[in-house]
User: Fold these one by one.
Assistant:
Number 1:
Amino acid sequence: MNNKPLLTTLALAVALAVSGCAMLEPQLPQADAAIPAEWPLPPTTASGKTAATVRAGAPAAMEQAVADIGWSDFFIDPKLKKLIARALDNNRDLRVAMLNVERARALYNIQRADRFPSVGANAALNRSGGNVANPGSVYSASIGTAFELDLFGRVHNLSNAALQQYFAQEEARRSAQLALIAEIAGAYLSLAADMESQRVAQATLDSQQSAYDLIVKRHELGAVSALDLAQAQTTVETARADMARYAGLVATDINALRLLVGAPVEAELLPQGFDLAVSGIAPLPAQLPSQTLLRRPDVLQAEHLLRSANANIGAARAAFFPSISLTGSIGSASTELSGLFESGTRIWSFVPQISLPIFQGGRLTANLGAAKADRDIALARYEKSIQAGFREVADALALTKTLAERRAAQQALAEAAGRVHQLSKVRYEQGQDSFLNLLDAQRSLYAAQQGLVAAQQAEQSNRVNLYKVLGGGWVESSK
């Protein structure tokens, strides 16, 4: 038998399949996020230096893109590093994100399998009877194959769409890891700040209690009025109430940290107070190109989803054209099981099929319209992710300077309030000032100290947030 025409036809079909795979997929639309090339900020950092000056004296890690700075290099607190490492192994949300990646990979492999011929073995017994000419049993064993000629790229586009979905899930995992690290750092800073506020409240309570005990004795001797005694008691009870409030906040902060870590947290891993050296990277310069947003995992995820939706349009277009499938088998058949594989029992079949849609009630047109709408939705979401990322970075950079100024002003306020309290205490003890003035000085000092803790926490949290929104945190080490 001459197989040359068949081979020629198959070669032509393969050539058409290769050339037609991407023929119906439209060109990927360009995103127009309408954002400036740089963030609208003055060329100064939080310290007031120019960006060039900061870069000249910055550590080597500052010369890298923020997305390339590993979280173990960004954070220098050893306790926080241990908590983050433990969370990456135990956090359930991150575990779900990783399993979603595995699921997307499996779905892609399922879809990708359609691009290759499927081969299977079959064994059967066909027993017939009744009013037939040759009743009896027929034993058969065969190996068959089926393959769809992807002339118009339907299978290829569906496989590409599944591949982009897999890539999107991988970026979602990175984004989940980035968010987890930032949440742990935020919870760690909140716990440290509440512990520091509790310490300030305890010190204030001890001081006010000692002063109140002294005033009670002086009141018994008639040296101070009942009004002074009542006013002194208000400061004691205020500090006592704050102690109870901060004790509750510390307990809830520890519970939140345990949930994020996904495992028990030993007492030695908890902060003992607020440490200003949580992160080891200096404030980032303001003149950073907005193109750095394109490396954020959430932006990359939106891009892959856009590519997946665009590939689905090609598959929807290919549904309008004929589909050709080739099915064949070769094997042996015999009326006796013992003679199944003897000579003269070979059988074969070759069944090419062409399926051409003629009338579908508008189903194919509607499917194509839905695919185009999904692509446009994905494009809008991609642009929105870039715009949202731009705003997050711009906000964090804008707060870098203002929060540093706030922390410096709050530091000066606390120092000034401390001097006022000391002078007011001396004047009251010498009888030159009323107890009411001393009481106001005590309250001002306490508020300034608590305000300083809040300002320090806000500055450190914003630095962690800036590291996150610039795309850092999903790699472990820069080395």
Number 2:
Amino acid sequence: MAGSVLEIKDLHVSIEDKEILKGVNLTIKSGEFHAVMGPNGTGKSTLASAIMGHPKYEVTGGSITLDGEDVLEMEVDERARAGLFLAMQYPSEISGVTNADFLRSSINARREEGDEISLMKFIKEMDEAMDFLEMDKNMAQRYLNEGFSGGEKKRNEILQLLMMKAEIGILDEIDSGLDIDALKVVAKGINKLRDENFGCLIITHYQRLLNYIEPDFVHVMMQGRVVKSGGSELSQRLEAEGYDWIKKELNIEDETINA
């Protein structure tokens, strides 16, 4: 599907009756890379989880649509089949399911019955993607994320993103815990996807990832809202000056909401 649009309007999200997101507005189109930055506890990861339907997060107001379809009415697996992909900050380990089996099943879940990817084509594409990401081929037959290092888990998330051909990728702190070599490989994988059929939301604390993946738009979240947006120069200024200048400019008092 070309030309996908993920639209978030006035999104309010709570955890156990505590409001975390307080009216987030964001539109991500295919071909665009967006970065969301902000101090700890401002709701960045909550936004990612709410988009994908994590049951812990209750949407109390606003809307999320993908190509005009109501995402909030979809189950988690339906959101994935519709073209949304979340690369998690802490990927889960699944014993008894190999990396290759998980990937092939996930790809086929997005295809029509009778149009499943052939085993030979799958193996060829997986081998090529693993070579590109400098991954040990033995990882294909290991149980999903079980015993993987932090860097291996993050590369594996990008492997899934490359193989599943999502329309909108949501990357929740994909750079956390990576050394510089692993960071470069992960960035290379994300940049490989940059085209008119793929849009990306990158949630990060640091400019260092954005040195390798230049975003088209940068958004700053504070107190559960997007308070400022700009181009890549905005993240560079944040790296140089921190967030105090935005707080002063917008008269925002210090407050964390632990999400």
